[in-house]
Design goal:
α2 crosses α3, α4 runs antiparallel to α9 and α6 runs antiparallel to α7. This protein is mainly alpha-helical. The longest helix is centred in the middle third of the chain and has 31 residues. The two termini are 40 Å apart. It has a two-stranded antiparallel ribbon with strand order 1-2.
Length: 222
């Protein structure tokens, strides 16, 4: 059997096992060979075989029985698997945003300068003007949230936000595509209230509004 390429080995091993299951090499209820047998067949190590099996267990294709081995539970993976992965990734991104942006909002309410507040107001206006094009809306949303993080005057939070932005941007685009709607009046109003709380130097309200906004986003990813 041809050895696998040296990239994404666990994914390739899982795909190879899936192909063999679909081909009837192991039927429903049949036991798979052990890791020491599958590894050389696939051209990978035992740890990679183990990870591939974990992937297929998660997809409902295989089941592990303590002390007995690994057995075929289905010959096809769930059609919803890829979407489940996307949703899980989006939830993880939003949880990371909560960790960064809730504290940043509170700090911005305590530390923002008049110039930084003006920058936030402008960013909120630009965001409000981009409610039809999805990617432009996400980009202007990121710009607003970055202006808040910058006003926290914490260079580590800024570094975390900037380093995380590419992944966050893609996750938000995917989420809004799944929702099929974005930029409504309620959403715009929430962001204006966050900026207002920062303007009022009210860290508790700024943090609570930011958290509630992001938790609402997270709920729509489920």
């Amino acid at each position: 059997m041809t050895a696998l390429r040296r990239e994404s080995l666990a994914d390739q091993a899982a795909a190879a096992l899936m192909e063999r299951i679909r081909g009837g090499e192991w039927g429903l209820g049949h036991k798979l060979p052990g890791e020491t047998t599958l590894g050389p067949q696939l051209g990978v190590g035992r740890s990679t075989v183990r990870e591939a099996i974990r992937q297929l267990v998660g997809r409902g294709v295989l089941v592990t029985r303590q002390g007995s081995g690994v057995f075929v539970a289905a010959v096809e993976a769930s059609d919803d698997w890829e979407e489940l992965l996307r949703r899980a990734d989006i939830e993880a991104v939003i949880e990371a945003r909560i960790a960064i942006e809730v504290e940043a909002s509170a700090l911005a309410a305590e530390r923002r300068t008049p110039a930084e507040l003006r920058a936030m107001r402008r960013a909120a206006e630009v965001r409000g003007a981009h409610r039809t094009d999805l990617e432009e809306h996400v980009d202007t949303d990121i710009a607003l949230h970055r202006s808040i993080v910058a006003a926290a005057h914490n260079p580590i939070l800024v570094e975390l936000f900037d380093g995380f932005t590419p992944r966050s941007r893609q996750a938000m685009i995917e989420l809004l595509r799944m929702r099929g709607a974005f930029g409504d009046a309620a959403d715009h109003g929430t962001h204006e209230r966050i900026v207002d709380a920062i303007a009022d130097r009210d860290p508790a309200t700024a943090a609570a509004l930011t958290r509630d906004h992001l938790l609402t986003l997270k709920a729509t990813a489920r």
